[in-house]
Amino acid sequence: MDLSCPILELPNIGQQRAKKLNGMGIFTMEDLLTHFPREYDDRSHICKIKDLVLNEENTFIACAKGEGETIRIKNITFTRVKLYDETGSVFAVWYNQMYMKKAFAEKTEYLFKGKLQKKYGKLEVSSPEYEKADIAMNKIVPIYPSVNGLSQKIWRKLIGDVIDKTKGQLKECLPHWLRKQYLICERNFAIENIHFPETQQNFFIARRRLVFEEFFLLQLGLLLMKQTLQQGKKGIILRKQYVISEFEKTFPFTMTNAQKNVILEIEQDMTKGKVMNRLVQGDVGSGKTAVAMTIAYWTIQNGYQVALMVPTEVLAEQHYESFCEMFEPFGIKTVLLSGSLTAKQKKEVLQQIASGEANMILGTHAVIQKDVVFFKLALVITDEQHRFGVRQRGALSEKGENPHVLVMTATPIPRTLALILYGDLDISIIDELPPNRKKIDTIAVTPSYRERIYQFIKKHADMGLQTYIICPMIEENEKMEVQSVLAYTEALQQNQLKEYRVACVHGKMKSKQKQEIMQSFSNGEIDVLVSTTVIEVGINVPNAVIMLIENAERFGLAQLHQLRGRVGRGSEKSYCILINEGKNKIAKQRMNVMQKSSDGFIISEMDLQLRGPGEFFGTKQHGLPALKIGNLYKDIAILKEAQSAAEAMLQKDRYLELAIHEDMKRKVTALWQNEQLSI
Q1: What is the pLDDT of residues 350-387, one digit of tens each?
Q2: Region 242-272+287-409: CATH code
Q3: pTM of the full predicted structure?
Q4: Strands 140-143 and 39-42, bridge-based pairing
Q5: What three-state secondary structure class fits 279?
Q6: What does the DSSP 8-state code read for residue 302?
């Protein structure tokens, strides 16, 4: 069977079912086979009816005693079926499912799973899962991520059918030497036992293979990109290193040792004739912009242009003002290229860039548009890397002849993971904060403190100081999120903060409107800015001293840390207040971490431990392909093995050109299809 065949070719899939599967990213037979279970139900422990435990999930085998009965009490209709085995009987109850009274064949054993409860003096199992006992006995049963209308029985049937049709026929994409060296099982065994493992050991063997394969293909993609970037390319050699120390003296502060070390690493890259591809990782407020500014100045003094791309117009404008202030005394022409320019303004800026009149170019995605032609581009910088994919980074690089690439991020990632995740980049870390950086007091409280907090906000507003309020994040429902922000803002304007200037921003606003409000806040014309996480990146207001985050338990620690970093940028004492409605132990642990630590790298480690990788390492943050089975925290040992294997693979076949690696090359290309990958 060709695994690229569409799912509609399967006998149990019609148009409606196909539509639901398509909505989950499943279009082909291969997509079905790689739709892995999210957990497993061990049904090898089956009890008798007499041994059922009250108020717990039980798995048992029973027959139905005759036809069931449907009973209506007030507005509730339920169907009750009597189940029995040789040790006793119990009722199974389903609500508003009248068809269940005839669902069971006489004298046929079924396997049931459900919670035993006592209602109105009778023992009953409420809405149990069931299937014929001969199908499901003594098995470890997969449970799949699903949507309404696709039951677990359907999933098991569909995937079981594909496995039966392809048994022993799946192509092996990992070479024999690699599987032998890293003790990796064969692909057919892995696919069969990840879905329907006979034993726990088989499951672990299968999962290790599939996790390894996923990480291996990820690493191959990153390494191939690195090869492509470096292949036959000579980097622009910069001279006049003395101007670096001269420029550093113009800052109103002394650079930290960490900043100086990173500048030295960059300097070494840009004087050796290689094309620099370097990631600078630094915590919020660590001084990445000063590093970027210094390197940009050095590049311009060598007669070249520099482009800096940032994710938001507000951040672009703030950078523009900062660069103008520092560069103008040296006669350096700085321009801003953004979507809000008029046609006339844009034409003028484009001419200045093309002629070389403009030395420093700042902007949003506008800088990678086709009509932007650079005169002599030598350095491209992307700020807040996690908002740009590999493709966008590459598009900016193509604007010049082998320009150096500097990538910056304020999202701290544990170093070992960063080395692996950003395999196409060299890494520098600014792990030291400026000595004058004020500590932000972080307080986690329950909603009962809300009125006291509003008084605290008023007190600071009367002193001319400003506040951010971040509204609850509502997963997968932007419309509700917007409504939540609007309702919250309206309540503050009419009640708690009616004497003060309160405004809001959210992701659904037009860019121009959003920018105007954020600019007004930056100018001190708004006391309280209510927002979704749209302000996480892209606004620097030294006068803002309070960050209030509602429903803090819904955010990852790394994100809370980013939001907290929006305050504490001026001379006044700053505060981060976390309103936590989470009752469980993990929610409390996470709030404690935020109160005790201000180190982004420690926080990122804890985030991974407590929350798992989730969005922390999703495609939204890194422009990396989504992982189907691997866990970047729990499977770090396998990840390191996969990286070593990928390096060994490319030593044997640099561009995967050999016929035996054809399937591997296809899989790598498919994994990275939305990114820039030349293989």
Answers
A1: 999 999 999 999 988 778 778 889 999 999 998 865 44
A2: 3.40.50.300
A3: 0.63
A4: antiparallel
A5: strand
A6: T
